[in-house]
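$ run holo --ligand "NAP" --emit C-alpha coordinates
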Amino acid sequence: MQVLMTILGQISEEVIVSREYKMFINGKWEMGGERIEVRNPYNQEVIGTVPNASNKDVDRAIASAEKALAEISELPAHRRSKILEKTSDLLARHKDEIAGLIASESGKAWKYSVGEVARAVQTFKFAAEGAKQIHGETVPMDAAEGSENQVGFYMRFPVGVIAAISPFNFPLNLVAHKVAPAIAAGNSIVLKPATATPLTALRLGELLQEAGLPDGVLNIIVGPGSTVGDQLVSDERVSMVTFTGSPPVGKRILSRGGLKKFTMELGSNSATIVCDDADIGLAVERCAMGSYALSGQVCISVQRIYVQQSIADKFIDKFIAATQKQVIGDPLQKDCDVGPMIDLNEAERVEQWVNEAVEGGAKILTGGKREETIYQPTVLTNVTSDMKVIKDEVFGPVVSIVPFDTVAEAIRMTDDSRYGLQAGIFTQRIDSAFQAIRRINVGGVIINDVPTFRADHMPYGGNKESGFGREGLKFAIEEMTNPKMVCFNL
Ligand code: NAP
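-- output --
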Protein backbone atom coordinates (compact mmCIF):
# COMPACT_ATOMS: atom_id res chain seq x y z
CA MET A 1 0.00 0.00 0.00
CA GLN A 2 1.25 3.49 -0.72
CA VAL A 3 0.61 6.15 1.89
CA LEU A 4 1.69 9.69 2.24
CA MET A 5 4.26 10.30 4.94
CA THR A 6 5.13 13.80 5.98
CA ILE A 7 8.80 14.37 6.49
CA LEU A 8 9.61 17.89 7.68
CA GLY A 9 6.52 19.18 5.89
CA GLN A 10 7.45 17.58 2.56
CA ILE A 11 5.06 14.99 1.17
CA SER A 12 6.72 11.89 -0.22
CA GLU A 13 5.50 8.39 -0.98
CA GLU A 14 6.60 5.46 1.17
CA VAL A 15 5.65 1.85 0.75
CA ILE A 16 4.20 0.21 3.86
CA VAL A 17 2.26 -2.98 4.39
CA SER A 18 -1.50 -2.93 4.40
CA ARG A 19 -2.88 -2.99 7.93
CA GLU A 20 -5.35 -5.42 9.53
CA TYR A 21 -7.95 -3.26 11.25
CA LYS A 22 -10.11 -4.41 14.14
CA MET A 23 -13.66 -3.58 15.18
CA PHE A 24 -14.27 -1.60 18.36
CA ILE A 25 -16.70 -3.04 20.94
CA ASN A 26 -16.90 -2.07 24.61
CA GLY A 27 -13.52 -0.31 24.51
CA LYS A 28 -11.72 -3.38 23.07
CA TRP A 29 -10.28 -3.81 19.58
CA GLU A 30 -11.35 -7.21 18.21
CA MET A 31 -10.11 -9.07 15.14
CA GLY A 32 -13.47 -10.84 14.52
CA GLY A 33 -13.91 -13.71 12.04
CA GLU A 34 -14.46 -13.24 8.32
CA ARG A 35 -12.58 -10.30 6.74
CA ILE A 36 -13.40 -7.65 4.13
CA GLU A 37 -10.71 -6.16 1.87
CA VAL A 38 -10.65 -2.40 1.47
CA ARG A 39 -9.19 -1.25 -1.86
CA ASN A 40 -7.81 1.99 -3.22
CA PRO A 41 -10.31 2.83 -6.00
CA TYR A 42 -7.53 4.39 -8.11
CA ASN A 43 -5.27 1.32 -8.45
CA GLN A 44 -7.33 -1.43 -6.75
CA GLU A 45 -4.52 -2.17 -4.25
CA VAL A 46 -5.68 -3.65 -0.94
CA ILE A 47 -5.01 -0.95 1.67
CA GLY A 48 -6.43 -2.75 4.67
CA THR A 49 -8.75 -5.49 5.84
CA VAL A 50 -11.60 -5.15 8.34
CA PRO A 51 -13.74 -7.68 10.18
CA ASN A 52 -17.16 -8.41 8.72
CA ALA A 53 -19.31 -8.13 11.85
CA SER A 54 -21.49 -11.16 12.63
CA ASN A 55 -25.05 -11.00 14.04
CA LYS A 56 -23.53 -11.65 17.45
CA ASP A 57 -21.01 -8.80 17.02
CA VAL A 58 -23.83 -6.36 16.17
CA ASP A 59 -25.78 -7.57 19.19
CA ARG A 60 -22.74 -7.15 21.48
CA ALA A 61 -22.03 -3.67 20.09
CA ILE A 62 -25.59 -2.55 20.90
CA ALA A 63 -25.44 -4.16 24.36
CA SER A 64 -22.16 -2.38 25.03
CA ALA A 65 -23.62 0.98 23.99
CA GLU A 66 -26.67 0.35 26.18
CA LYS A 67 -24.46 -0.44 29.18
CA ALA A 68 -22.28 2.66 28.63
CA LEU A 69 -25.29 4.98 28.60
CA ALA A 70 -25.39 5.35 32.38
CA GLU A 71 -21.80 6.60 32.46
CA ILE A 72 -21.83 8.97 29.48
CA SER A 73 -25.20 10.51 30.31
CA GLU A 74 -23.97 11.27 33.85
CA LEU A 75 -20.54 12.56 32.77
CA PRO A 76 -20.51 16.33 33.40
CA ALA A 77 -20.66 18.54 30.30
CA HIS A 78 -17.18 19.96 30.94
CA ARG A 79 -15.70 16.44 30.85
CA ARG A 80 -17.52 15.49 27.63
CA SER A 81 -16.34 18.78 26.19
CA LYS A 82 -12.70 18.04 27.10
CA ILE A 83 -12.80 14.63 25.37
CA LEU A 84 -14.11 16.29 22.20
CA GLU A 85 -11.55 19.10 22.42
CA LYS A 86 -8.73 16.59 22.81
CA THR A 87 -10.00 14.57 19.84
CA SER A 88 -9.92 17.74 17.76
CA ASP A 89 -6.30 18.33 18.81
CA LEU A 90 -5.36 14.72 18.00
CA LEU A 91 -6.92 14.98 14.55
CA ALA A 92 -4.91 18.14 13.91
CA ARG A 93 -1.73 16.40 15.09
CA HIS A 94 -2.29 13.44 12.72
CA LYS A 95 -3.72 15.43 9.84
CA ASP A 96 -1.41 14.20 7.05
CA GLU A 97 -1.69 10.55 8.05
CA ILE A 98 -5.49 10.77 8.17
CA ALA A 99 -5.71 12.73 4.89
CA GLY A 100 -3.63 9.92 3.33
CA LEU A 101 -6.15 7.35 4.59
CA ILE A 102 -9.11 9.36 3.22
CA ALA A 103 -7.45 9.77 -0.19
CA SER A 104 -6.45 6.09 -0.32
CA GLU A 105 -9.82 4.60 0.58
CA SER A 106 -12.21 7.08 -1.06
CA GLY A 107 -10.17 8.34 -4.04
CA LYS A 108 -10.63 11.93 -2.85
CA ALA A 109 -7.88 14.22 -4.18
CA TRP A 110 -5.16 14.99 -1.62
CA LYS A 111 -6.04 18.68 -1.36
CA TYR A 112 -9.70 17.92 -0.60
CA SER A 113 -8.69 15.14 1.82
CA VAL A 114 -6.54 17.61 3.76
CA GLY A 115 -9.52 19.99 3.70
CA GLU A 116 -11.78 17.28 5.11
CA VAL A 117 -9.44 16.70 8.07
CA ALA A 118 -9.33 20.46 8.74
CA ARG A 119 -13.12 20.52 8.74
CA ALA A 120 -13.33 17.57 11.15
CA VAL A 121 -10.92 19.37 13.50
CA GLN A 122 -13.48 22.21 13.58
CA THR A 123 -16.46 19.85 13.83
CA PHE A 124 -15.05 18.38 17.05
CA LYS A 125 -14.26 21.88 18.37
CA PHE A 126 -17.83 23.06 17.72
CA ALA A 127 -19.10 19.89 19.45
CA ALA A 128 -16.84 20.60 22.46
CA GLU A 129 -18.40 24.06 22.70
CA GLY A 130 -21.91 22.70 22.07
CA ALA A 131 -21.60 20.19 24.94
CA LYS A 132 -21.53 23.17 27.35
CA GLN A 133 -24.55 24.93 25.81
CA ILE A 134 -27.29 22.31 26.21
CA HIS A 135 -30.18 23.87 28.08
CA GLY A 136 -33.95 24.20 28.23
CA GLU A 137 -36.11 27.22 29.07
CA THR A 138 -38.94 28.24 31.31
CA VAL A 139 -42.51 27.99 30.02
CA PRO A 140 -45.04 30.70 30.96
CA MET A 141 -47.55 28.22 32.41
CA ASP A 142 -50.08 30.91 33.39
CA ALA A 143 -50.71 31.55 29.68
CA ALA A 144 -53.12 28.59 29.76
CA GLU A 145 -56.37 28.81 31.73
CA GLY A 146 -56.24 26.30 34.57
CA SER A 147 -52.39 26.31 34.79
CA GLU A 148 -52.03 29.53 36.79
CA ASN A 149 -50.56 27.68 39.79
CA GLN A 150 -47.96 25.80 37.79
CA VAL A 151 -44.32 26.78 37.36
CA GLY A 152 -42.81 24.96 34.40
CA PHE A 153 -39.56 24.53 32.54
CA TYR A 154 -38.01 21.95 30.29
CA MET A 155 -34.56 20.38 30.26
CA ARG A 156 -32.88 18.39 27.49
CA PHE A 157 -31.77 14.76 28.02
CA PRO A 158 -29.83 12.36 25.77
CA VAL A 159 -32.00 10.14 23.53
CA GLY A 160 -30.06 6.94 24.38
CA VAL A 161 -28.32 4.52 22.03
CA ILE A 162 -27.78 6.08 18.60
CA ALA A 163 -27.11 4.03 15.47
CA ALA A 164 -24.95 6.09 13.11
CA ILE A 165 -24.73 4.97 9.47
CA SER A 166 -22.43 6.91 7.18
CA PRO A 167 -21.67 7.03 3.43
CA PHE A 168 -18.35 6.57 1.59
CA ASN A 169 -17.81 10.09 0.34
CA PHE A 170 -16.70 11.88 3.53
CA PRO A 171 -15.25 9.03 5.59
CA LEU A 172 -14.12 11.37 8.37
CA ASN A 173 -16.23 14.51 8.55
CA LEU A 174 -19.62 12.89 8.04
CA VAL A 175 -18.73 10.38 10.76
CA ALA A 176 -17.64 13.34 12.93
CA HIS A 177 -21.03 15.01 12.31
CA LYS A 178 -22.71 12.03 13.97
CA VAL A 179 -20.26 10.89 16.63
CA ALA A 180 -19.23 14.32 17.97
CA PRO A 181 -22.74 15.73 18.67
CA ALA A 182 -23.89 12.35 20.04
CA ILE A 183 -21.08 12.43 22.63
CA ALA A 184 -21.63 16.15 23.29
CA ALA A 185 -25.26 15.35 24.13
CA GLY A 186 -24.37 12.38 26.41
CA ASN A 187 -25.47 9.51 24.15
CA SER A 188 -23.74 6.24 23.31
CA ILE A 189 -23.22 5.16 19.72
CA VAL A 190 -22.92 2.18 17.42
CA LEU A 191 -21.30 3.38 14.20
CA LYS A 192 -21.45 1.50 10.91
CA PRO A 193 -19.31 3.31 8.34
CA ALA A 194 -19.58 2.58 4.60
CA THR A 195 -18.02 -0.77 3.71
CA ALA A 196 -15.90 0.87 0.98
CA THR A 197 -14.35 3.42 3.37
CA PRO A 198 -14.26 2.17 6.99
CA LEU A 199 -10.56 2.74 7.76
CA THR A 200 -10.71 6.45 8.61
CA ALA A 201 -13.66 5.85 10.96
CA LEU A 202 -11.73 3.11 12.78
CA ARG A 203 -8.70 5.41 13.09
CA LEU A 204 -11.00 8.10 14.52
CA GLY A 205 -12.16 5.54 17.09
CA GLU A 206 -8.54 5.09 18.20
CA LEU A 207 -8.16 8.84 18.64
CA LEU A 208 -11.40 9.12 20.65
CA GLN A 209 -10.19 6.32 22.92
CA GLU A 210 -6.84 8.11 23.34
CA ALA A 211 -8.78 11.29 24.18
CA GLY A 212 -10.37 9.47 27.15
CA LEU A 213 -13.79 8.39 25.86
CA PRO A 214 -15.18 5.82 28.36
CA ASP A 215 -15.41 2.21 27.15
CA GLY A 216 -18.57 1.32 25.24
CA VAL A 217 -19.66 4.89 24.47
CA LEU A 218 -18.53 4.46 20.86
CA ASN A 219 -18.67 1.06 19.17
CA ILE A 220 -17.62 0.64 15.52
CA ILE A 221 -18.65 -2.35 13.45
CA VAL A 222 -18.18 -2.88 9.73
CA GLY A 223 -20.18 -4.97 7.28
CA PRO A 224 -22.75 -4.75 4.51
CA GLY A 225 -25.63 -2.34 5.00
CA SER A 226 -28.10 -5.00 3.92
CA THR A 227 -27.17 -7.24 6.88
CA VAL A 228 -25.18 -5.37 9.56
CA GLY A 229 -26.95 -2.04 8.90
CA ASP A 230 -30.36 -3.67 8.75
CA GLN A 231 -29.90 -5.48 12.07
CA LEU A 232 -28.66 -2.29 13.69
CA VAL A 233 -31.55 -0.06 12.61
CA SER A 234 -34.21 -2.68 13.46
CA ASP A 235 -33.01 -3.30 17.03
CA GLU A 236 -35.41 -2.03 19.69
CA ARG A 237 -32.59 -1.01 22.05
CA VAL A 238 -31.60 1.67 19.53
CA SER A 239 -33.46 4.94 20.21
CA MET A 240 -32.36 6.93 17.19
CA VAL A 241 -30.89 6.35 13.73
CA THR A 242 -28.79 9.10 12.21
CA PHE A 243 -28.31 8.21 8.56
CA THR A 244 -26.44 9.85 5.69
CA GLY A 245 -26.71 8.15 2.33
CA SER A 246 -28.92 7.62 -0.68
CA PRO A 247 -32.72 8.14 -0.69
CA PRO A 248 -33.56 4.49 -1.50
CA VAL A 249 -31.53 3.25 1.49
CA GLY A 250 -33.02 6.02 3.65
CA LYS A 251 -36.54 4.83 2.75
CA ARG A 252 -35.59 1.22 3.47
CA ILE A 253 -34.24 2.18 6.92
CA LEU A 254 -37.45 4.09 7.71
CA SER A 255 -39.50 1.03 6.79
CA ARG A 256 -37.37 -1.24 8.99
CA GLY A 257 -36.65 1.00 11.97
CA GLY A 258 -39.98 1.03 13.83
CA LEU A 259 -40.64 3.56 16.60
CA LYS A 260 -37.40 5.55 16.81
CA LYS A 261 -36.10 9.01 16.10
CA PHE A 262 -34.51 9.46 12.67
CA THR A 263 -32.44 12.03 10.89
CA MET A 264 -32.09 11.46 7.17
CA GLU A 265 -29.37 13.28 5.24
CA LEU A 266 -30.00 12.12 1.69
CA GLY A 267 -29.09 12.95 -1.90
CA SER A 268 -29.80 15.73 -4.36
CA ASN A 269 -29.45 17.00 -7.96
CA SER A 270 -28.36 20.47 -6.83
CA ALA A 271 -28.62 23.47 -9.12
CA THR A 272 -27.02 26.89 -9.29
CA ILE A 273 -28.30 29.95 -11.14
CA VAL A 274 -25.89 32.37 -12.83
CA CYS A 275 -27.61 35.71 -13.56
CA ASP A 276 -26.44 38.26 -16.17
CA ASP A 277 -25.14 40.60 -13.42
CA ALA A 278 -22.99 37.87 -11.79
CA ASP A 279 -19.23 37.93 -11.40
CA ILE A 280 -18.66 35.38 -14.17
CA GLY A 281 -15.05 34.61 -13.18
CA LEU A 282 -16.15 33.76 -9.63
CA ALA A 283 -19.13 31.73 -10.86
CA VAL A 284 -16.98 29.69 -13.25
CA GLU A 285 -14.28 28.99 -10.67
CA ARG A 286 -16.75 27.96 -7.94
CA CYS A 287 -18.97 25.90 -10.30
CA ALA A 288 -15.92 23.94 -11.53
CA MET A 289 -14.95 23.11 -7.94
CA GLY A 290 -18.58 22.33 -7.02
CA SER A 291 -19.07 20.04 -10.02
CA TYR A 292 -15.84 18.05 -9.97
CA ALA A 293 -14.53 17.80 -6.38
CA LEU A 294 -14.49 14.10 -5.43
CA SER A 295 -15.56 13.36 -9.02
CA GLY A 296 -18.96 14.89 -8.29
CA GLN A 297 -19.66 12.33 -5.55
CA VAL A 298 -20.85 14.96 -3.09
CA CYS A 299 -24.50 15.26 -2.03
CA ILE A 300 -24.40 18.99 -2.87
CA SER A 301 -22.38 18.72 -6.10
CA VAL A 302 -23.36 21.18 -8.81
CA GLN A 303 -25.32 19.06 -11.28
CA ARG A 304 -27.44 21.69 -13.07
CA ILE A 305 -26.26 25.19 -14.01
CA TYR A 306 -28.90 27.64 -15.23
CA VAL A 307 -27.21 30.58 -17.03
CA GLN A 308 -28.94 33.74 -18.22
CA GLN A 309 -29.13 33.76 -22.03
CA SER A 310 -27.18 37.01 -22.59
CA ILE A 311 -24.03 35.65 -20.86
CA ALA A 312 -24.47 31.97 -21.74
CA ASP A 313 -21.84 31.80 -24.53
CA LYS A 314 -19.23 33.63 -22.46
CA PHE A 315 -19.94 31.48 -19.37
CA ILE A 316 -19.85 28.22 -21.37
CA ASP A 317 -16.49 29.06 -23.03
CA LYS A 318 -14.89 29.88 -19.68
CA PHE A 319 -16.47 26.86 -17.97
CA ILE A 320 -15.21 24.45 -20.65
CA ALA A 321 -11.71 25.94 -20.21
CA ALA A 322 -11.95 25.50 -16.40
CA THR A 323 -13.15 21.91 -16.89
CA GLN A 324 -10.27 21.06 -19.22
CA LYS A 325 -7.80 22.45 -16.69
CA GLN A 326 -8.80 19.90 -14.03
CA VAL A 327 -5.85 17.62 -13.22
CA ILE A 328 -7.13 14.04 -13.39
CA GLY A 329 -5.34 11.05 -11.88
CA ASP A 330 -3.86 9.66 -8.68
CA PRO A 331 -5.59 11.27 -5.67
CA LEU A 332 -2.38 11.00 -3.65
CA GLN A 333 -0.61 13.43 -6.00
CA LYS A 334 -0.63 16.94 -4.57
CA ASP A 335 -1.81 18.62 -7.79
CA CYS A 336 -4.70 16.18 -8.44
CA ASP A 337 -8.18 17.77 -8.80
CA VAL A 338 -10.21 14.75 -9.90
CA GLY A 339 -9.52 11.17 -8.85
CA PRO A 340 -11.44 7.95 -9.49
CA MET A 341 -15.06 7.20 -8.72
CA ILE A 342 -15.62 4.87 -5.78
CA ASP A 343 -15.82 1.73 -7.96
CA LEU A 344 -16.14 0.51 -11.53
CA ASN A 345 -19.92 0.00 -11.28
CA GLU A 346 -20.43 3.63 -10.39
CA ALA A 347 -18.13 4.86 -13.19
CA GLU A 348 -19.99 2.64 -15.69
CA ARG A 349 -23.37 3.86 -14.42
CA VAL A 350 -22.38 7.49 -14.99
CA GLU A 351 -21.07 6.60 -18.47
CA GLN A 352 -24.40 4.95 -19.26
CA TRP A 353 -26.42 7.95 -18.06
CA VAL A 354 -24.39 10.30 -20.27
CA ASN A 355 -24.75 7.94 -23.25
CA GLU A 356 -28.52 7.81 -22.70
CA ALA A 357 -28.66 11.61 -22.59
CA VAL A 358 -26.68 11.84 -25.84
CA GLU A 359 -29.06 9.35 -27.49
CA GLY A 360 -31.89 11.63 -26.37
CA GLY A 361 -30.31 14.69 -28.04
CA ALA A 362 -27.87 16.05 -25.42
CA LYS A 363 -24.53 17.41 -26.63
CA ILE A 364 -21.19 16.76 -24.90
CA LEU A 365 -19.20 20.02 -24.80
CA THR A 366 -16.16 18.40 -23.19
CA GLY A 367 -15.36 15.08 -21.47
CA GLY A 368 -17.65 12.09 -21.87
CA LYS A 369 -14.98 9.40 -21.64
CA ARG A 370 -14.17 6.76 -19.04
CA GLU A 371 -10.96 4.95 -18.27
CA GLU A 372 -11.48 2.22 -15.65
CA THR A 373 -12.81 3.98 -12.49
CA ILE A 374 -12.03 7.50 -13.76
CA TYR A 375 -14.80 9.38 -15.55
CA GLN A 376 -13.69 12.61 -17.21
CA PRO A 377 -15.20 15.89 -16.01
CA THR A 378 -18.05 16.30 -18.47
CA VAL A 379 -20.22 19.24 -19.58
CA LEU A 380 -23.56 18.65 -21.30
CA THR A 381 -25.97 20.98 -23.03
CA ASN A 382 -29.24 20.52 -25.00
CA VAL A 383 -30.56 18.47 -22.09
CA THR A 384 -34.24 18.00 -21.23
CA SER A 385 -35.95 17.78 -17.86
CA ASP A 386 -36.86 14.11 -18.30
CA MET A 387 -33.23 12.96 -18.68
CA LYS A 388 -31.61 11.11 -15.75
CA VAL A 389 -28.69 13.58 -15.81
CA ILE A 390 -31.20 16.31 -14.86
CA LYS A 391 -33.93 14.68 -12.80
CA ASP A 392 -31.96 12.03 -10.85
CA GLU A 393 -28.83 12.31 -8.74
CA VAL A 394 -25.83 11.84 -11.11
CA PHE A 395 -23.29 11.58 -8.26
CA GLY A 396 -20.48 11.85 -10.81
CA PRO A 397 -18.42 14.58 -12.53
CA VAL A 398 -21.18 15.50 -14.99
CA VAL A 399 -22.81 18.90 -15.17
CA SER A 400 -25.53 20.21 -17.50
CA ILE A 401 -25.79 23.85 -18.60
CA VAL A 402 -29.24 25.21 -19.44
CA PRO A 403 -29.79 28.83 -20.61
CA PHE A 404 -32.74 30.87 -19.21
CA ASP A 405 -34.46 34.19 -19.97
CA THR A 406 -35.91 35.40 -16.65
CA VAL A 407 -34.78 34.80 -13.07
CA ALA A 408 -38.30 33.58 -12.23
CA GLU A 409 -37.93 30.88 -14.91
CA ALA A 410 -34.52 29.81 -13.52
CA ILE A 411 -35.94 29.60 -10.01
CA ARG A 412 -38.84 27.49 -11.25
CA MET A 413 -36.47 25.06 -13.02
CA THR A 414 -34.20 24.87 -9.95
CA ASP A 415 -37.18 24.03 -7.76
CA ASP A 416 -38.53 21.48 -10.25
CA SER A 417 -36.89 18.57 -8.44
CA ARG A 418 -37.96 15.87 -6.06
CA TYR A 419 -34.87 16.77 -4.00
CA GLY A 420 -34.35 19.86 -1.84
CA LEU A 421 -30.90 20.03 -0.24
CA GLN A 422 -29.18 23.30 -1.22
CA ALA A 423 -29.28 25.72 -4.17
CA GLY A 424 -26.96 28.51 -5.32
CA ILE A 425 -27.47 31.81 -7.13
CA PHE A 426 -24.83 34.20 -8.46
CA THR A 427 -26.29 37.72 -8.65
CA GLN A 428 -25.66 41.27 -7.48
CA ARG A 429 -29.42 42.00 -7.25
CA ILE A 430 -30.90 41.68 -3.79
CA ASP A 431 -34.40 41.10 -5.19
CA SER A 432 -33.20 38.13 -7.29
CA ALA A 433 -31.46 36.70 -4.24
CA PHE A 434 -34.64 37.04 -2.16
CA GLN A 435 -36.82 35.48 -4.88
CA ALA A 436 -34.51 32.45 -4.72
CA ILE A 437 -34.59 32.37 -0.90
CA ARG A 438 -38.41 32.51 -0.83
CA ARG A 439 -39.29 30.23 -3.73
CA ILE A 440 -36.81 27.34 -3.74
CA ASN A 441 -37.82 24.55 -1.38
CA VAL A 442 -34.38 23.54 -0.04
CA GLY A 443 -32.54 23.40 3.28
CA GLY A 444 -30.07 26.13 2.25
CA VAL A 445 -29.76 28.89 -0.38
CA ILE A 446 -26.23 30.06 -1.07
CA ILE A 447 -25.89 33.52 -2.62
CA ASN A 448 -22.82 34.16 -4.80
CA ASP A 449 -21.49 30.68 -4.23
CA VAL A 450 -22.34 27.12 -5.22
CA PRO A 451 -24.77 24.83 -3.35
CA THR A 452 -21.66 22.80 -2.49
CA PHE A 453 -20.73 25.37 0.17
CA ARG A 454 -21.05 24.16 3.76
CA ALA A 455 -19.62 25.36 7.07
CA ASP A 456 -19.78 22.78 9.82
CA HIS A 457 -21.74 24.75 12.42
CA MET A 458 -24.56 25.89 10.14
CA PRO A 459 -27.88 24.00 10.05
CA TYR A 460 -27.49 21.56 7.19
CA GLY A 461 -30.01 19.14 5.74
CA GLY A 462 -32.69 18.74 3.16
CA ASN A 463 -36.39 18.92 2.36
CA LYS A 464 -38.46 16.64 0.13
CA GLU A 465 -36.49 13.48 -0.87
CA SER A 466 -33.26 15.01 0.43
CA GLY A 467 -34.44 13.97 3.88
CA PHE A 468 -35.29 15.58 7.20
CA GLY A 469 -33.59 16.71 10.38
CA ARG A 470 -30.54 18.94 10.48
CA GLU A 471 -26.85 18.43 11.16
CA GLY A 472 -24.44 21.20 12.20
CA LEU A 473 -23.40 20.80 15.81
CA LYS A 474 -25.98 22.87 17.66
CA PHE A 475 -28.76 21.44 15.47
CA ALA A 476 -27.58 17.83 15.66
CA ILE A 477 -27.32 18.13 19.46
CA GLU A 478 -30.93 19.30 19.49
CA GLU A 479 -31.96 16.27 17.36
CA MET A 480 -29.99 13.97 19.69
CA THR A 481 -31.67 15.17 22.89
CA ASN A 482 -35.28 14.98 24.04
CA PRO A 483 -36.92 17.83 25.95
CA LYS A 484 -38.33 16.76 29.32
CA MET A 485 -40.99 19.01 30.79
CA VAL A 486 -41.04 19.71 34.53
CA CYS A 487 -44.12 21.24 36.22
CA PHE A 488 -44.34 22.38 39.85
CA ASN A 489 -47.88 22.65 41.19
CA LEU A 490 -47.47 25.44 43.75
P1 NAP B 1 -25.69 4.39 0.42
O1 NAP B 1 -25.48 3.33 -0.59
O2 NAP B 1 -27.08 4.80 0.72
O3 NAP B 1 -24.95 3.88 1.76
C1 NAP B 1 -24.87 4.68 2.91
C2 NAP B 1 -24.70 3.79 4.13
O4 NAP B 1 -25.87 3.01 4.32
C3 NAP B 1 -23.54 2.80 4.00
O5 NAP B 1 -22.91 2.66 5.24
C4 NAP B 1 -24.27 1.53 3.59
O6 NAP B 1 -23.56 0.34 3.87
C5 NAP B 1 -25.52 1.65 4.46
N1 NAP B 1 -26.64 0.80 4.05
C6 NAP B 1 -26.89 0.29 2.82
N2 NAP B 1 -28.03 -0.45 2.86
C7 NAP B 1 -28.50 -0.41 4.14
C8 NAP B 1 -29.62 -0.97 4.81
N3 NAP B 1 -30.51 -1.73 4.16
N4 NAP B 1 -29.78 -0.71 6.13
C9 NAP B 1 -28.91 0.06 6.80
N5 NAP B 1 -27.81 0.62 6.21
C10 NAP B 1 -27.62 0.40 4.89
O7 NAP B 1 -24.90 5.72 0.05
P2 NAP B 1 -23.40 5.91 -0.44
O8 NAP B 1 -23.28 5.38 -1.84
O9 NAP B 1 -22.44 5.46 0.59
O10 NAP B 1 -23.34 7.52 -0.47
C11 NAP B 1 -23.90 8.23 -1.51
C12 NAP B 1 -25.25 8.82 -1.16
O11 NAP B 1 -25.17 9.53 0.06
C13 NAP B 1 -25.69 9.85 -2.20
O12 NAP B 1 -27.05 9.70 -2.46
C14 NAP B 1 -25.40 11.17 -1.51
O13 NAP B 1 -26.14 12.26 -1.99
C15 NAP B 1 -25.73 10.84 -0.10
N6 NAP B 1 -25.09 11.79 0.82
C16 NAP B 1 -25.86 12.70 1.48
C17 NAP B 1 -25.27 13.65 2.31
C18 NAP B 1 -26.08 14.67 3.07
O14 NAP B 1 -25.55 15.24 4.02
N7 NAP B 1 -27.32 14.91 2.70
C19 NAP B 1 -23.89 13.65 2.47
C20 NAP B 1 -23.12 12.70 1.79
C21 NAP B 1 -23.74 11.76 0.97
P3 NAP B 1 -22.63 -0.31 2.72
O15 NAP B 1 -21.50 0.64 2.53
O16 NAP B 1 -22.24 -1.60 3.28
O17 NAP B 1 -23.48 -0.43 1.49
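-- notes --
The chain is about 40% helix and 25% strand.
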